[in-house]
Sequence to fold (626 residues):
Amino acid sequence: MHNLVERILKGDIRAVARAISYVEDNHPEKTEILQELYPHTGKAYLVGITGAPGAGKSSLVNKLIGYIRKLGLSVGIVAVDPTSPFTGGAILGDRIRMQDHFLDPDVFIRSMGTRGSLGGLSRNTKEAVRILDAFGKDVIIIETVGVGQSELDIMNIADSTAVVLNPGGGDTIQAFKAGIMEIADLFVVNKADLAGTDKLVREVEQMLDLVKHDAPWRPPLVKTITFKNEGLDELWQAFLDHKEFSLDAGDYEKRRSSHLKEEVVEIVNYQVHQIILQQLKDEQYQQLMEQVSNRSVDPYVVAGKLIEQLTGK
Amino acid sequence: MHNLVERILKGDIRAVARAISYVEDNHPEKTEILQELYPHTGKAYLVGITGAPGAGKSSLVNKLIGYIRKLGLSVGIVAVDPTSPFTGGAILGDRIRMQDHFLDPDVFIRSMGTRGSLGGLSRNTKEAVRILDAFGKDVIIIETVGVGQSELDIMNIADSTAVVLNPGGGDTIQAFKAGIMEIADLFVVNKADLAGTDKLVREVEQMLDLVKHDAPWRPPLVKTITFKNEGLDELWQAFLDHKEFSLDAGDYEKRRSSHLKEEVVEIVNYQVHQIILQQLKDEQYQQLMEQVSNRSVDPYVVAGKLIEQLTGK
Fold:
């Protein structure tokens, strides 16, 4: 057994941090570690929290951590922050988040940056979640700034997903447009002390009437006011209600099973991509790429050659 | 030569629409068509317009089309709208957009939906742009709802990219955080009649002072008020300034060349993904996937088998 795996299973938090760094850095021993941890995964309840930038997700998650800890459950947080290299937001984010919980050994917080591109972030995030799962965290919160497809891809690891909205943003329809609503198992109207809360609640309910009128699970809507600690009971209850519903309906296992299958495909895509990048370092491709640039060879020809080399056909 | 290619090169607009549908549907003749069109591409000026949901991009693009048409240039628009299947927004979007321009044969507007997943949308969008390029459009506008990685991926086909912001959203810092600012060649403060415009302008300029103080190109900031037709001159001029700058600096060709190389990798990833999905239909993988679900086999083992089969190693 890999030394890090042994330490993770014994509860060594530094080993967890190290393993996640291995994942982000695509360390050669990464796959070995993840494989050995895999049989120990599947126990944590995976909670997704997403919403537009500025919706107040980080503060909400911060409060939710405190709430869950009071229930005696341990918590892991993987925050996905596709941050500009300029702002260094991922690190800053960790520090701000940690303030409230850094003395608590049963809270583990990790921000994932954009070190891996092209599906790498989604892959790395899921792997970090698996590590925390094997580590024995009861609840793992996956927080993403969500509008794009890659955020949706990340969220498909969660057992239950909350979409966080704000009053007054006038963005309800936009949020529905952005395709994020299909992944919502529940809605949070955060900053519910602001004007426009009732209007937003009405709009979401109307949307749900349209879209979910014959669905077996209608996503509930929870109002929260983070700085007043209001709505955390209701929020956590809504998560548990969804979990219970999906366990009863058999959706819980079905969803997990389909997520795992998607992960297999992701792993393949990622590993093949690495092979291709390696192939591209050959002299012949350097020349071919030049010819693509001056449009004397088309990209499909080069792609074809790369695939031929890959498959040996 | 493929019949559709012949018709596209002769200026048949219905052939263009058909070819883009082939692209979206992953039609077996798609690659043939794109290969034959490729030598005819590279002439259009590719303009990217992105920004958060609700920033008023569609209205702005609509006005910009009218402006560019008055200059005697033909325009193609590829609008990327990762729309919910519920709202059918892509189709609705087309209809709303078309209102102003549907009698003009020199305007071609196409919304791309989410038919292709996992990089498919980015791939399809670029292919649609290539088709419009070969068709002979002078300017092609690529419009995306941009926050996530996939939108950034889509934008890396553009020669010049504008990021659209709004006053009063308080989202400047958030937008910088979301990593979208690195792709901005210029900024548009849209809805510049609203309160908070000056504050936003100041914030962006401060950010630029920090981030671009020694960059050879400092993204200019243009204020627009769409419903008053204000700022369109300045906006178009800013695009042309950037184009001229990057032509002079050699960045124009360098950027195009690196985009084409990325496209090669995208094509490979996409085609390999198709092969993998085919492999997964085999009985043995159905069984293996069941075992992954019940955690008796880990995903890495199955991924390994798929890669072995793919590469014959």
User: Anything to note?
Assistant: Residues 267-311 of chain A form one domain. The longest strand of chain A covers residues 45-51. Confidence is low (pLDDT under 50) at residues 83-92 of chain A.
